[in-house]
Design goal:
Number of domains: 1
Number of strands: 0
Strand content: under 5%
Mean pLDDT: 92
Order of helices and strands: HHHH
Low-confidence stretches: none
Largest sheet: none
Number of helices: 4
Helix content: over 70%
Distance between the termini: 43 Å
């Protein structure tokens, strides 16, 4: 049995300690900074928990837009592949590829990608949508 907590648990514990025990004892001029740190920790936790799945789903949608079959990819190559597909998508948008029948699929992809990113960076922005 491994008694060493993982990075997510460490971040969550540190964030809870900051908010629950330390924040009330900080001078007023440091409270905003502490809250920014706590927010950054929450984003890092969500990124670790959900980021890989969001990236994998985005890559699958991009491949679908380009009519390519989905294939598995090593996690260390995911960012490189995404960067390439995002660049290709931007070029194709500029060149008018999605001005016709594929426009709806493009908009669906962009909306889902934005929602996935917001779920990590600012989930409250999704409330009520």
């Amino acid at each position: 049995m491994n008694d060493i907590p993982d990075a997510i648990k460490l971040l969550a514990t540190a964030r809870a300690t900051l908010l629950d025990k330390l924040l009330a004892h900080l001078p007023e001029e440091l409270r905003y900074d502490a809250l920014m740190i706590a927010n950054a920790m929450a984003i890092a936790i969500r990124e670790q928990v959900n980021g890989g799945a969001a990236d994998t789903a985005e890559l699958a949608r991009l491949r679908g837009l380009f009519g390519e079959r989905a294939k598995s990819i090593a996690s260390d190559a995911l960012e490189v592949a995404l960067a390439g597909y995002r660049k290709r998508l931007a070029t194709d948008i500029r060149n008018g590829r999605f001005d016709g029948a594929e426009r709806e699929a493009l908009f669906a992809h962009l909306a889902q990608t934005a929602a996935d990113q917001l779920a990590i960076s600012n989930p409250k922005a999704l409330e009520g949508s």
